[in-house]
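Form 7-S
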Amino acid sequence: MRAGTDLLISVRPLTAADRTSLEGIVRRTGVFSAAETAVAVELIDAALGNPAQKDYILYSAEGAAGEVLGYYC
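Output:
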């Protein structure tokens, strides 16, 4: 997907390898309170801990080099 930049972003299913990067992104934004950050990480863990669950569907966004850029839930 291109949105006015030369940055190519792919969306793919969340993997366990994404967790550390995503937690870091959530913490570094400075937008979320400590409680909101904890909930965001809890939802990532819930999705990873039980891939068959249907309550929270998470996808990772990655750049052209495979780096994790974010996620949606």
